[in-house]
Amino acid sequence: MKPGATLDEGALLAYDREHLWHPYTSMTAPTPVRLVTGAAGCELELADGTRLVDGMSSWWAAIHGYRNPVLDAALAEQAGQFAHVMFGGLTHAPAIRLAERLVEITPEGLDHVFLADSGSVSVEVAIKMVLQHQRGIGRPERTRLLTVQGGYHGDTFGCMSVCDPVGGMHSMFAGVLPQHVFADRPPALDDGVAAWADGVRRLAATHAHELAGIIVEPLLQGAGGMHAYPVACLQVLREIADEHDLVLVFDEIATGFGRTGALFAADAAGVTPDVMCLGKALTGGYLTLAAVLCTGEVARGLSASESGVLMHGPTYMGNPLACAIALASIDLLLAGDWQDRVRHLNQRLTTGLAPLRGHPNVVDVRTIGAVGVVQLDHPVDVVAATDAAVAAGVWLRPFRDLIYTMPPYVISDDELDRLLGGITAAVKAG
């Protein structure tokens, strides 16, 4: 807050409790929330003056931290011109330049860009691309997708249908969702890839006549359990897609822009998908924006479908403010030492979390890129674990049986030490 400003914290929180829904939270018995009044660097400031190292990058998006002067300037400059204009029949430089940059940095062949307004919407668009492509090339009967157990792709209905159908967050909707084909979750280690691949190949062959595409989160499954798996699995999926003429979709909303150690997880595997979804860190956490890229082959196929056009067009598609910030965020990332930073974070997280392997309630500790995960042998007591982390000066948001972190890439070593201390406190309390 600004010096001298007043804030009735109690009244605001009371109204929040009575009227505001928060993600995955009950309205009748909500869990506590904390009032943020400021954020800078890697810290959040609460109404009582408490400063917390943000171990979540605001759900994996704020890779440059908060109040970054470059991104602030990009926002202000674009706001001084115009904040929004419809994308139907109009265009603008921020969208064009962002598309140019995305085509430039993503795997070769992803030449066409659809600018959506959230990660979930980008997955919906990707699914439409897959289905329209198959219709356009004369295979309208191909309407199902092949995916893997343990996945998470968003909260809208198309997304929910390709999330884990049993252990995921959307099992209560199973009866009203399209029924897709689920292979086993990819193995955590290389020595399990061959057996897994055999199973996926058999499943794909059995359902090939009705399959339109394959969709996965490459290398790291996010909200489905923070499960990492070998690059060889992506190479197997590319081979299966080619064998059965399936459209391969990589949902890189969480993994894109360096989080797993490569700029995109597809790069680590040396695999080019037919469709790629991007979001979260795309704007450095400033505004909601997502992008769907596809190959010319997919674009031509879907354009040959009976509609002749891609059947989607959000009101805020290509928002100029978001596009300008996204372009600035990508330039900022690529101009810096992000690879060294992510490598350093991985080393520190790996070393710093290792002692928790001996904790009696911990079943696994794992890291990949700038991601650290501690898995417990029971569901986390979210309130107790959060309170313990806050008392240690850290913001975390555990879920299921996991206490994890995806910190901003710019976090200092001192802040990282605090973060590791907060994770340890949360594990002991949760």
Automatic annotation (TrEMBL):
The record marks Y24 as: Participates in the substrate recognition with KAPA and in a stacking interaction with the adenine ring of SAM. Its EC number is 2.6.1.62. It comes from the Bacteria. It holds the Pfam family Aminotran_3. GO terms for cellular component: cytoplasm. It is found in: Cytoplasm. One of its GO terms (molecular function) is adenosylmethionine-8-amino-7-oxononanoate transaminase activity. Pathway: Cofactor biosynthesis; biotin biosynthesis; 7,8-diaminononanoate from 8-amino-7-oxononanoate (SAM route): step 1/1. Keywords: Aminotransferase, Biotin biosynthesis, Cytoplasm, Pyridoxal phosphate, S-adenosyl-L-methionine, Transferase. It catalyses: (8S)-8-amino-7-oxononanoate + S-adenosyl-L-methionine = S-adenosyl-4-methylsulfanyl-2-oxobutanoate + (7R,8S)-7,8-diammoniononanoate. GO terms for biological process: biotin biosynthetic process. Its cofactor is pyridoxal 5'-phosphate. Substrate binds at W59, Y152, K280, G313, R397. SUPFAM superfamilies: PLP-dependent transferases (SSF53383). The keyword Cytoplasm applies. The modification N6-(pyridoxal phosphate)lysine is found at K280. The keyword S-adenosyl-L-methionine applies. Gene3D superfamilies: Aspartate Aminotransferase, domain 1 (3.90.1150.10), Type I PLP-dependent aspartate aminotransferase-like (Major domain) (3.40.640.10). Pyridoxal 5'-phosphate binds at G119, S120, D251, P314, T315. PROSITE patterns: AA_TRANSFER_CLASS_3. Belongs to the class-III pyridoxal-phosphate-dependent aminotransferase family. BioA subfamily. Homodimer. Catalyzes the transfer of the alpha-amino group from S-adenosyl-L-methionine (SAM) to 7-keto-8-aminopelargonic acid (KAPA) to form 7,8-diaminopelargonic acid (DAPA). It is the only aminotransferase known to utilize SAM as an amino donor. NCBIfam families: bioA, PRK05964.1. This is Adenosylmethionine-8-amino-7-oxononanoate aminotransferase. It comes from Nocardioides immobilis.
